[in-house]
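[job 4471] stage=fold_predict status=RUNNING
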Amino acid sequence: MRTTSRYRAAARMIAAIGVVTLVAACSGNGGTPGGGGTTSAGGGASYPEQNITFIVPFSAGGPTDTVTRLIAEPMAAKLGGKIVVQNVEGAGGTVGAGEVARAEPDGYTVLMHHIGMSTAPALYQNLGYKPLEDFEMIGLVTEVPMTVVARKDFQPATLKDLVTYVKANADKVTLANAGIGAASHLCGLLFQTAAGVKLQEVPYEGTGPALTDLVGGQVDFMCDQTTNTSGQISAGEVKAYAVTTPERVKSLPDLPTTTEAGLPQLQVSVWHGLYVPKGTPQDVIQKLTEALKVALTDQKVIDQMAKLGTAPVPAEDATPQAHRAKLQEQIGTWSKVIADAGVKAS
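[job 4471] inference complete, writing structure tokens
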């Protein structure tokens, strides 16, 4: 797949490093979700005794995959084992999440998911799992800001201009996203609600092709994570209007917030968290949480996240309790937004 993103190249480098460092082999017992191996009845006294599989329910090289590979190495070092990162994509992240929900609850199959974990119940009528009931939470990882970006020759100069323009040209303007339920889709819904307009949406099978077409001028504008747009913004390949968080992003200091730019209703960030199947022993969960906290204080992780326009969550948020509270609150928030928009995924 063609891409003009310098971020994508960086992501591939990170992924390559992750494969060399973290993956011993995918042919052994730890190479597939819930695969083989013996586990002590008590849970985590000698955990881990085999490879741990981190399931990313999105494509390799994407924002969630990159964040996962960043924290996997220091987590593996803390745990004294090996972590295999496996991409199980499809249906807005629900295929991979479903696999983890059905996996053996022994701590060897871990899910990294983003905000989509909280929107899936409202989007999918036959989801096959319940986020609050079928998983144990390990902790939050990071909250990634979104950006509103357009093709570089798009007429509106500011976010206020953009709102005025799309209202006057709603039947002509195209709003791209990475598919129903994707972060870019959710941000786009909020934009339309905040702007009081209904636009022609163009869904893609992933962020990569959507952003590629935006850079190429085939679509007009979109919302996407800073982890995916910082490279194009810095290179001048897209026109950037605002960042969707209360504070500016350090890596993009000249980009105003949506509040500064005149659309304070558009506030959204893409939070990520780690999950294991319901019934995983508490001592295993504790070990994973401790390893996550160590990873989030690793200077390499902090530096790499900063380059991607984000940062690790504070230590108090990297806990099962904070994670569950966040998920519960977000399910309530997004269920109303999605219901009001009348959006359903097949």
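[job 4471] summary: The beta strands are 52-56, 83-87, 109-113, 135-151, 174-177, 200-203, 221-225, 238-243, 269-277.
[job 4471] exit 0
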